[in-house]
Structure formats: C-alpha cells, structure tokens
Amino acid sequence: MSQGILDDRFFTRPTDGQILSFPILIVGGSTAAYTATLGALQAGANVCLVQPKQVLGGQFTAQALPASDDPQLDAQYNPGGIYEDKVDREKYAFSKTQSEFRQRSRELQTVNGQKVNNPGGCWVTYFATQTVVMAQVLNETIQDFITNGKLTLIPFAEPVEVLFAESASQRRQVNGVVFQDVQNNQRFTVNAQITIEATDLGDLLELGNIESRVGQESKNDTGEPLLPLQAYPLCQQAITVCAAVEKTASGEGVPIGKPEGYGEEPWLQTDKFSSTYKGRAFFEQYSIFTYRRIKRLQDGDVPPTSNGDVTILNYESNDYKLGVLTGVSRSDRQTHIQQAREYTQAYVHYLQSQNLKTNNWMFFSQVGELKPRGDLTWTDNGIALEPYIREARRGIALTTIVYQDAAKQYYEDAARGRCFDDSVGIGNYALFDIHPTDNPNHLIFNSTAEMECLPFTIPLKGLIPINTDNMILSAKSIGTTHLTNSVYRMHAVEWAIGEAGGHLAAFILNEGVDVLSIATDKRLIYKFQGLLARHQIPLFWYNDLDYDDPDFEAIQVLAVAGIVRTENHKNLYFNSETTVNRAVVSIAVVNVMGFELLNPEFPTFYDVPKEHFAYRAIETMAAKDIVAGVGNGNFAPNLQCTREQLGFIVGESGDFDVYQLFSDTPLDAQPLKRRELSRILYRVLRSRYGIS
Fold first, then answer.
1. Is the pTM of this model over 0.90?
2. Does one domain contain both 593 and 637?
3. I need a labelling partner for 247 at 20 to 30 A (CA). Which of 106, 366, 397, 413 fits?
4. Rounded to whole angstroms, how far apart are CA atoms 488 and 203?
5. Domain extent for 632
6. Boundary (domain end) residue, out of 475, 503, 533
7. How many other CB atoms sit within 10 Å of the CB of residue 405?
C-alpha cells in the first residue's frame, strides 16, 4: 500500500469485451459505495465493486473532505453520565463498523505520541484526520476480502449502459452494467443478481432511464411547503473542489500559480474570495485555516495554528456556483469540473497573495506562506482528485423522504423527527445545509427556524426504486428531495445508507426473494432489521443505548416498530433500567400482538376513563380476559408491572412458551424493567412472525 492506495495486485482490470458475473455489483466511488461493499462482505456475500479511481472512500478520501460533517453529539447529555466524551457517544450515533473506522484513524494519527479524539484539531467537527490515514484504514478493512476472493475491485471504469432482463411484469429488472475503462477505452460487462447504484451523481439512473428527479422540485412534486410551484432542475447544490494546504515558516511557501484567465474568466473572478471569518484573520484559532484542519502539531481541542499544520480548503469562497453536473451532457459536466478545479486553484493563489492583519492590528499574518499538499490528494498541486459532490440525480423510490419528516418546526418539543417503521439506519445534522448555485430561482430559507433539523431515520423503501427490480439505491441517489438530501448527504449518514444497502443486497440473496418483497413483507422487514441490529447498526436514536448493550437488538427493533419506544418524546433516552407501569405494558402487548383496538362507549374501569392514553389498549385486553382490575372496579394503570404479571399477560395473549421467553429473566414479583419488557416482547414478535 502506498499513500493510501492498494497495490496493483489487489485490482482487477477486465479485458475488452469480457463478461463477468457476480451476486452483487456495486457501482461508484462514493463513501456509500465503499460501505455497501463492506456491509455485503460482512454479511457473507461475494461482491464486485467498480469505481472511477483507485482510491476508496469518496468524501473522506478522493474528494478530500476527511473532516467529517457529523451530528452535534454534544447537544444532548445522558443524565446517567454513561458517556464521558463525544467519542464514547459515537456508540449510539454510529454503527460499530463506522465507530471502528474512526477509532482506527485516531490510532494511526496521533498528536505528540498520544491518541486524541480529534487528531486534526479543527472546529467544524470533532473528528478529522488526514485523507491518506482514512484511506489506509478503509483499505485495511477490505484487504483480506480481496485476498480470499470475496471481493473483486475494478478501478478506472465508468458505467456506459444499464442492462435489463426480459420481464413480463411492468417492473423492469436490472441484470448488469456495461463499463468503459477510462484509461484504455476498453469495454466490459458485469452481470449481477443485485446492482447497487452508489455513484456520486446517480449515473445509473440516467443511463437506464430509471425514474428520477434532478435539482429543486416543485411544491406539487413533493408537497414540501417551502418550494415554489415550478420545478427548477438546474437549481442543484454547488460542488466544491477541495484543496490540501500546509502552513509553512516564512519563505517556505510553495506558490500554486494562478490559472490562465485569473480574474478575467467568469469562473475565475475573485470578488467572492475571502481570507477572514467573522473578522478573524486566516490563521487565527477559530477562522478558515482551523475550520477543516486535518493535522495539527499542538495539543488541545482546537489549538492555535503552527507551522506544519495542514487544512482542507472547503469554504464558501471556493464553492463553484456557475454550473451543475446532473441533467447536463458529459462534456458540460467535465467542463464544469475543470472550471471548479481552476476556481479552487485561483482561491489558493489569492490566499498566497494576501498580507492581512489580525484583529489587534499589530501582528501581520503572512497568508501567502502556504504549501499545497499533493501527497494528501493524490495530485501534484494539492487540489482534490475528485470534486466534493453535494447532490445527485435522485431515484424516485417507494418512499420519498420530505422536509416535513425531519424539520424541527413540525415536531413542537419532540426530540426526534419522523421514525419510519422500516428504518434501516439513523442520521442527524443540525441544519438543512444547502449550498446554492448562482441560479436566481434557488430556494432561500427565510429563517434559522426553517433550517433546523431533528434526528431522523433512513427508510428501507427509500432505497428501492418505484418501478425497477434488482436495484438498490444508495449514496445521494436514495428517495430524498432537494431539501432532505441536504442532511442525508452528510458523511456519517451516507456511510449508514451504504452499509444498510450492502446488508440488504446480501439479505435478499440469502432469503431468495426480490427487493420489492422485502419492502412489502412485515415479517421480512422485522427479520432484516433484527439482522442489522445484530450487526450493531442503530435503527432508532437513543442517547443512552449503545451498540454493545446486550438488549440492543430487541430495544432497537421494538422502538422502530412503535411497540416499546420512549418514556418522554422530549428527549432521546430509553432509560432501560426504569420500571414499567400496567398501562404501558397493556399498550405494548396490544401492539406486539396486533390486536384490533376496541373503543367502547363506556369504560370498564373507574380509573381508566375514555380520555386516558391507554384506554383502548386496556379495554382491548380486558375484553379478551387477558387483564383484570385490582378490585373495586379499578385497573391501577400507574401501578408498576411485575415480571410475573408480564409472564401471565403474555401467556394469556397467545400460544407461547412463557418459560422459554423468560429464559434469562426471572419470573418473580420484582418490578419489570424497560429493557426486560423489550427483551420479552421482541421474542414474542419473532415467534408471531416465525422468525428463527
């Protein structure tokens, strides 16, 4: 391995006209392409990954944005004090695989010999390392799969045609993709039972004429109230070509040179360039250089800048706003990418030409002392190998995730947005983050309140095209809108999307069913969600439940199903050790059994009137003689339920082996805990649906 690139022996280069066949084909160089590959491999499948470069990892590596756009994990606090710092809290926000990637990156990039939470010392996030470090970790994780033949990795190839099988149904069936090697122009074909669309721009959707949308939809398209009545396909998020630069001692900077047409061509105007942030000079502690710093020499969370520190330039100044990459010709796309690259070169040159004062007006900061770090971008000038893509062509999926599903303004004092009952992952970002182009029709938020976002989930049906079989949507091509893509596109969420899609592909093959069957069969959804949770992938956001918890699977699946969820919708806690009252147990059992809720005109119990939140559940249980009162016509809904009482209730609810359900939970008179309720009822759920 050299500078984060696998040795040539790990790559396969098909010959002209060669036809290969695999159970799973993953197409693209995105972060999700990598995590889909890893997920499918960890599930035991054989996989072929075809991507445009040799570098794995997308946003983290080839796009040179290793300062991860993360959820604000320090915004919520666990009253039990379980989590000591942000890194500990990663265990509830990310899957085990994603957490291990982050931890290994920290191990490889120490600061003064010590492993630290944020090796880069930037302030936009608490996790940043160098691109080559992340690339090395990603490579380490899959190397053995290539060696043992489970993974075939094909670089330098772009899709040119999507192949479809003959089908009697109205739903088309993808059965392969034709690729062209961009180095030698040779064409080859990869046939597959399942194809995952994980390109950064949704290219398979365009090539296959698969139902999709581009740019900003209309209000009529999605029902999102902030949108205009007319769609504007060319209103897409701006791209950015990032650059890696090092702060050097005086006289040691290396000029990048100005691109031809600097200050003259429309895409090389410098009027929007800036070297300050809120009045702070470029190198100051909380300014542009430290914003996405990926290497620092000093200790501390966000220490002052030192010579030898390295940052990534991905700032408003070098957003390319003059063109878009989807819905245009391939030649126009390449033109815009080249112009965006020159624009970033112009920005670096601009910075190297400045001589700015700090706030105290006494010290002169030589911003020009910058050295491009091409060794961190796999290029000769420190400018990223690939543009940072914020928006792709989006598939029209069985579920379209809309603004109202995650926008805080629709949930009053709730701590979460919508939880889809087919959730396959979680995500969060503080604000809907749209980087507009110069198109005058682009949506502009009227207030911060319109931008605020709550923790959200990733619906399984959002990964499945509405009328196409044998394909899974991934990366930024899932069923989001222009608005919701702006939070679902973040590093950690894209990781989760890819990981779920890879496991889904393997699950489909193992079950011997098609993609649509998974999405429409409740039994298969529960089974798949259980599998994901067993792989320590969170499906529902809890700030006090990490993936190492022994009841993680049960609690996660029942929460998504709405059977046992949260005590208080205003926070993100499960409170697994607290007790449960008789009303909550009644609701949970009715839900897990799928009983039809009764709503009698007159209450059975004096202390459970019609207005009571558990009225219908308690009346349903009473009508089935599953529960009785405590005497004098009362039910005592707030009384703690005991373990043996739950055993009796479950035994009366169906044909279950209660002792087997309670095999690791005492059947005694002790108060029932929330984790125990989930543990027992999850077994009831699996028994009801015949899930072994």
1. yes
2. yes
3. 106
4. 19
5. 548-688
6. 533
7. 24
